Amino acid sequence: MIIMMRPDASEREVEQISEMLRAHGLAPRRSHNAGRTVIGALGTAGATSVPGLPELCDQLREAPGVEAVLPVSQPYQLASREFHPEPTEVRIPAPAGEVVIGGEQIVMMAGPCTVESEAQLLAAAHAAREGGATILRGGAYKPSTSPYGFRGLGVAGLELLARARAETGLAVVTEVMTPAEVELVCAYTDILQVGARNMQNYYLLDEVGRSTRPVLLKRGLAATIEEWLLAAEYILAQGNPNVILCERGIRSFERLTRNTVDINAVPLVKQLSHLPVIVDPSQGTGKRSLVGPVALAAVAAGADGLIVEIHPQPDAALKDGAQSLTLEQYAGLMPQVRAVAAAVRRSVALPQTLQTTPVAQAPSVVALASAG
Ligand code: PEP
Ligand code: MN
User: Fold this and answer.
1) Which terminus of the chain, N or C, has fewer Cβ atoms within 10 Å?
2) Domain ranges, residue 35
3) Does 80 reside within a domain?
4) Does pLDDT of 165 surpass 90?
5) What confidence category does residue 54 fall into, taking pLDDT thresholds of 50, 70 and 90?
6) How many whole angstroms from 307 Cα to the centroid of ligand 2?
7) Is 286 in the pocket of ligand 1 (CB under 6 A)?
8) Is residue 257 one of the residues assigned to a domain?
9) Tell me, what DSSP letter sits at residue 318?
């Protein structure tokens, strides 16, 4: 349930409502909408079994300062647009300037699937920045379907990411796989990535929710949109408001692509939730030749950003080479991303260090379409 306070409600009145909720074992959580305080009563979303809830609703409606008491129509609450009508902007301080995800500008994240060596990471990081990315991706702890596959360099990989961050000024996003490693990974990264395979690891969600780092939450391999938003709710409920959702394709009957990017999810999640949504066309397609077209489709559908795998020698990559763009392909894609962004009245954020350098003229959308 959501309690909308009147615009002139006093702090005392807001606190009184919070006390009434606590007395019923409910956790009050505040947000603000168009100059008023909105109080979410955590634990009541979709609940029919809270004792005395109808009577409490009546008392709340009569309480001073209250304008309306609204039921929550979704099983998640803090992640819903009803609780937080304005879009959330996740702010990431980085050496090359603050990056904002969820605002007017589209944010580009690029880098190798997996950190393999200093030379590989630095080549990809410099290319990422030159192309206009503001965030460097790279896995140090990798989920591997086969126990014999490469599982990442661990701490040595985190140290290389810190080196690349210092050299390029880019913010870093990297995956954390266990609650016990959250503190360690936080010491090296600007954004914690929760991978698709861990979207429903509730202990991990609780732990990243207790941290202050923004969290990039991938959609699970077979997760519904509602399950994905409930996973985000876990993080928000622990007090971390900075969640970025990432559509990375779901399992379908189709075998010619690795996954099926659910493009519907982009506008739908933006209607249901205030959280920013980005798309990963690399895991989403599994094929280098499809990454560019699907990246452009994601921007056209309203994505707030892209996360793309790039590699100086994709054919020699230890992981996900088939879906990694060469550095040249990535450089060629970026003007197209800017053109599609402009067509939907957005722009692509640039690292501050590049902002003064004129960006190569983006081709028009018409030119792109006729180029096939
Ligand atoms: C990745 O980003 O390299 C990755 C493993 O992603 P996902 O969790 O979406 O499979
Ligand atoms: Mn990958």
Assistant:
1) C
2) 2-70
3) no
4) yes
5) confident
6) 10
7) no
8) yes
9) S
Contacts of 56 (CB under 8 A, 6+ apart): 20, 21, 24, 50
The residue that leads in pLDDT, 370 or 240, is 240
Judgement on whether residues 25 and 139 belong to the same structural domain of the protein: no
Per residue in 276-310, pLDDT (tens digit) is: 999 999 999 999 999 999 999 999 999 999 999 99
Q: Does residue 175 belong to any structural domain of this protein? A: yes
Last residue of a domain, one of 39, 70, 101: 70
220 closest CA partner among 243, 249, 240:
249
Global pTM value:
0.92
C-beta neighbour count of 198 within 10 angstroms: 22
Residue with the two structure tokens 């410099």: 126
Taking the centre of ligand 1 as the mean of its atom positions, its distance from the CA of residue 287, in whole angstroms, is 14
- Looking at the fold, whether 325 and 184 belong to one and the same domain comes out as yes
* Angle between the N-to-C axes of helices 11-23 and 53-62, in degrees from 0 to 180, rounded to the nearest 10: 170
My answer on whether 40 and 99 are in the same domain is no
Question: For residue 370, is pLDDT > 60?
Answer: no
Using an 8 Å Cβ cutoff, are 193 and 174 in contact?
yes
Is 96 contained in some domain?
Answer: yes
**Same domain (yes/no): 214, 102:** yes
Residue 309 β-bridge partners: 111
Within 13 A of 139's CA, how many CA atoms are on the CB side? Answer: 24
Task: Tell whether ligand 1 has an atom less than 6 A from the beta carbon of residue 195.
Answer: yes
Give the distance (Å) from ligand 1 centre to CA of residue 167. 25
In terms of domains, do 58 and 179 share one?
A: no
pLDDT greater at residue 359 or residue 48: 48
- Look at the chain and report how many structural domains it folds into: 2
CA distance readout (Å), 320 to 143, 160, 169, 361: 12, 19, 26, 31
Does 352 share its domain with 249?
Answer: yes
Of the candidates 290, 223, 229, 216, the one whose C-alpha atom is nearest the C-alpha of residue 251 is 223
Report the nearest atom of ligand 1 relative to the CA of 114: 3
